[in-house]
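User: Assemble these into one structure.

Assistant: Restating your components, then the assembled model:
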Amino acid sequence: MTTSTGALADRLRHLLGPDRLLEGDLARSLYSHDGSIVGGACGLVALPETTDEVAACMRLAHEAGVDVIPRGSGTGLTGGAVPLDGGLVMSLARMREMGDVDVANSCVWVQPGVLNLDVSTAVAHLGLHYAPDPSSQQACSIGGNVGTNAGGPHCLAYGVTVQHVLGVEMVRPDGEVVVLGGVAPDPPGYDLRGLVVGAEGTVGIVTRVLLRLTPLPPDVRTMLLDFLSVTEASAVVQAIIAAGVIPAALEMMDRNMTMAVEEFVHAGLPTDAAALLLVEVDGTAAEVDTATAVVERVARTHGVRTVRVAQDEDERALLWKARKTAFGAVARVKPSYYLHDCVVPRTRLVEVMAAIGEITAREGVMCLNVFHAGDGNLHPIIALDRSDPDETERAMRAGDQIVRACVALGGTLSGEHGIGVEKRDYMPLVFDHDDLAAQACVRRAFDPDGRMNPDKILPTGTRCGEVGLADTQVPEGTWI
Amino acid sequence: MDLRPDDREEMAETLRAATADGRIVDVRGGGLHSRRGRPFTPDDILHTHGLARIVDYVPDDMTITVEGGVAVGEVLRLASECGQGWPQAPSQPDATVGGVLAAAVSGRRRLRFGPIRDSLLEVVVATGDGRIVKGGGRTVKSVTGYDLPRLFTGSLGTLGVIVQATLRLWPLPIAERWFTARGEAADMVAMAQGVLGDLHRPTAVIVGPHAVHVCLTGVPEDVVPPAGMIEAAEPTGLVVPSDGGVATGIMEAGVPPASLPALARRLADDGRDYEAWMGTGICHVAVSTPADVAAVRDLATLHAGHAQVIDGDEALRGDPFGPAPAGADIMRRIRDAFDPAGILCPGRFAAAEAVPA
Amino acid sequence: MSTGWMPGLPAPTRDDLNTCVQCGLCLPSCPTFRITGLETSSPRGRIAAMRAVQAGEATVTGDFTRFTDECLACRACEAACPSSVPYGRLIEAARVQTEAARPAPERLMRRAGIAGIMGHRRMVRLAGAGLAVAQALRLDRLLPRHLRLATPRVTLRGMRMALPATSGEGPTAMLLTGCVMDIAFRPVHRATIDALVRAGYRAVVPGAGGCCGALAAHAGELDSARALARARIAELESADVIVVDSAGCSAHMRTYGHLLADDPAWATRAQAVAAAVRDAVEIDAPPGRPVDGRVAVHDACHHLHAQGIGAEVRRTLRAAGATCVDLGDGGRCCGAGGIYNVLEPEIAEDLGAQKAHAIIATGAPVVAVANPGCAIQIRNHLRALGSDIDVRHPLEIVD
């Protein structure tokens, strides 16, 4: 530990008490990971409980010139919460108070450590819910959701996190508290709230979030369609959307994934099918009836084998459990996994699924697919045993080729997990020098010293300030 | 001087030159949202009409990529040929895509479909100092990097000129109809509140001093007249004569949605003309004098909101934005990075350091 | 690669540790994480700490001991884990390590409590009698609050309550009399015997009886646990079924096969006994009396998470006409955790109070609790909040 963090530790301990500042080697090592396979080195861990405490910690870190890495539940999949080189991890897990629900305006202020699913549970009696529903929603925090602009199956119709965050209270890197956005729409000036959401903790620490709550739909229907080929299933995804129906959710699972999940949830999934589509439609009873008919008709003209409609809430919950526990179920196949969450235009689904199949076969790795087919957001999960260096190498290579294949098909790097560390060096695949420099400028406008979650999102060497210089000054491939 | 670049490179080149020469530039699309911000005297007016190409329309993917000077009506026409629409867009066919995005003008269907910024997937801009910068991505979902599309939506041309935009389209609804009723202001507000409370996701519930307008979207079974209402056309909104001796303009207030009924009743009591978008918190109010501007802003502030002048001649635009926004220093640093010489639409920057009296 | 485990002792295995993919879905299910918000008191964090030891980056002393001590071993995380990490097995093995590494005086203290007393029926009864006298004289007020909250209510009369050696006709069902159950919960034994008779069994109460070894096993004292298991096997193996009216004990006895797998003389017998174990709520007896009104249902972790038992309790109560009310706390651990409430009083107190509030919120006059540790913790926390809600084993309620 450097002298500056040593002095900082004394001041933080004085501020928070010894129980809320973790300094021991073993404790710190537990905070040098998140849900990804990225590992780092953690300097100190602070566990503030109030905005004032966060502000005080941030002032101390500012004075000490120490990097700050915000952390929610640590379920992220790109290393976004991993301290790469020491620094102060600010765990917001103890900031989990939910304010009173503003029923008239359908919104609620919550602290960042509140868990996603707990919001919906707490407001269900008012006929409301919080729409974004990442598969980790039982465990992931609202603060983390804001950081990554999290998605989830129901974002197809309801939109991603940024569309459900009306305002944020944020502690800036120097400790100043600012409230951006709010319940009154469209305040004058730039939409800084929109920039904070998805900035992966690189612009400040969000200490309160004003969430929009959405009425529960009067009617919901969940269907499971099964197909003998991935191509047919992909075509149905496209055809459903083209037929003018935007389902609430439209998810695909391939055979490998289905087998792993079925073993865990026993939902009666057909494990001999090449691909399953989980389709949910909601709205008024008439809307649901119409949408169901369209989905069934489209599926039948595209070779669906069976259409299973959930008969009750229990069956619906079981089908969703199958979908939402899929990542963890991979451990039944191999002890670890590596995945990307690239997005491709929906029209390229068939091609990209074929490409993924070829790449993983060529590299000899097992790939399980479960993803948000409706918006083209892939999750090719490569199962691996990290103690096998050769397999790990092949998995990484396959992941790399999958990313490049997606971009080549007009796609982008991430649909909901964020860039973090894992995809940082791929950014030049989709953005050129000026694009990245512009993003660096936005980041610097919030954090002039570059101490907030450094080395995330933008490739090393991306700087604001070189703007306008000819690209030729930067050797090609510098970032890759 | 009127400048009419033909493509994005020319646009960037023009801006680079303006930055080098320190010439103040105004950006003009359809001209529908040009009377915004503090008055300023441009050296050049930069027109976007030369950038009017449809770059890529992929109906099966429900995305369309167009240049910034393309008219909103053109996008709607193309989309409708494939059974699609752009429900977040305002009912201003002659406005340009770049213009309505830069001004963040949302359509009346905002209650159901959200604000216009939710429809912008990828944006390409020519910055004040003449760089071409892209943000976002053409897929319907993306968290790849900082959200420049949201930054540019509503930036009022103070960061750069939108030269290209990729928009997310939606299927045209099976049924959509507008309904209306006329009566006293208080009754109209009450009727609107009833519709909001009774129906699942109405598309628009608009209240004026003498009428209420409701838009319903979905399947025919659900698109039926609410009690006491009859079918009618979409309302035209507040119209401001662009010339004439009397200063007239429009303010847009944003208040918590639940405060809108009270605000509307108060505006009616004060004898003002207004169009309140119930459920969204947005309210357009007609104003004629600087005193009106101050009074409407005070009223919005009283209801925990804010109000800005979105159209009006110079006399009304001495203080169009009101108090400095939160994070003004951040906004200034962003502007400095994109338009270091400060040549772009200086009057439209809400976080300017010192507002001349 | 050299690991940080102490050689010659059971330890978490590499294969078991490898099943965790660090997804974090277990975090909200963990009662201690819910309270502290610390990765160090979460299942994922404890597994990561075990991995650090496995990798030779940490030892089984100091912080590692503290992190594992804080675990309630409620195994709620196992139900939440999509990768089916055998967390219970990991934490028990880790505790064997931490116990062995503990300084001698501290170990002795813990042993005296767990193995020394629980292992010997006479000691248990003697301790019980002492407690009964102290409580009768209200001397227990002198105990620290956390010990008071962890102490069962014992009376000499209750301890002397007679249990018939045999009753009823049918296949032989032998009752585990146990340790804590035997001194503080004889009415539960009574109700269980009645239920067995109603279900058509010949209920047999073995002569000596004693502890199943669960407390010792959870505390990492595997030698004591094995000795107790062998004693119980010898005592109970002649029965057709072995009936256990304490969730913690039935869960533990079902692992006898695993516990004695490496003991050639006992492995087969242990497996047979484990297979013959029935929790008392599984015997499916007709109700002894009708029950109307609401009954709050507390799921013991050792039922819900260790054995997947939950529906059986409700079925038993509903058969008697009761309306079962689930607690609004998502079935979180009550904080008893064997003797956790003695060792980690602060967390246990928070959890106990939360549980008592959740029970009070149901408005039911009685709460069904099928585990002695939970019953003690819940009863004491209810009383501390001034509630007189009755705490009963489900079979008592329908007896």
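The mean pLDDT of chain B is 94.
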